[in-house]
Amino acid sequence: MDKRADQRTERALVAYVRQELSAPAIAIMGYAEIMMEDVGQAGREPFVADLQRILDASRNLHRLITSLLDPAVVQIAAAGKDLDEYRRHLRHDLRTPINAI
Fold first, then answer.
1. Cα(75)–Cα(92) distance, integer angstroms
2. What whole-number distance in Å separates Cα of residue 5 and Cα of residue 17?
3. What is the pLDDT along the chain (101 residues), one digit of tens a residue?
4. What does the angle CA 21 – CA 68 – CA 74 come to, to the nearest 5 degrees?
């Protein structure tokens, strides 16, 4: 394979991983928004604070996924050849919003 084919493959893989990780975060945001509406209509205000934290954490998770798996960021990490460090950084940064959810 030539270098351009390798780059296309790499970009496709990053896009696939980004999509696979962001889809659940988007789903969590959607469900949290629906539950916020339902809780408000049902008069269950004690749950609003927890649902707001879930919604905020899912938004933060989605932002992190899209920024950390931006093709330019991944390309820079790959150019530095420290992919293990990049993976550790990715796991660490994503763990906080996941734990909050």
1. 19
2. 18
3. 577 877 788 778 888 888 888 999 999 999 999 999 999 888 888 889 999 999 999 999 999 888 888 877 776 666 666 677 777 887 888 888 888 88
4. 105
Amino acid symbol at 53: R
Q: Do residues 59 and 65 lie in contact, with contact meaning Cβ atoms separated by under 8 Å?
A: no
Question: Three-state DSSP class for 81?
Answer: coil
Strands of the chain (E only): list them: none
Q: Read off the DSSP letter of residue 1.
A: -
Query: At a CB cut-off of 8 Å and minimum separation 6, what does 40 contact?
Result: 48
Buried b (16+ CB within 10 A) or exposed e, 9-45: eeeeebeeebeebbeebeebbeebeebbeebeeeeee
